[in-house]
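Schema walk-through. Below, the input block comes first and the output block second. Nothing else is stored per chain. Lengths vary across the set, and this one has 91 residues.
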Amino acid sequence: MAHTKSNKDQLLARVRRIAGQIAAIEKAIAEEAGCSAVLHQVAGVRGAVLGLMDELIVDHVREHVARPGLSDAVRAEGADELIAAIRRYAK
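--- output ---
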């Protein structure tokens, strides 16, 4: 995904925040935190991952499907890649 180069630092920052949230969940479980607290942390991670996925989908559509000048074949390939990713994510 060549377009990830343009906002690589932002994407990496998001991934690092998610990694930090995962580490906090691990710590909470290890320290036997209450179920409610852990559930809220997991919900936060889910939201963060969904936000990352949303940003990546938008970037992909703009770069590989909707960008002016792309051939129909390239657009179709970009759409197929996106469909495959969404299907995999939805499982």
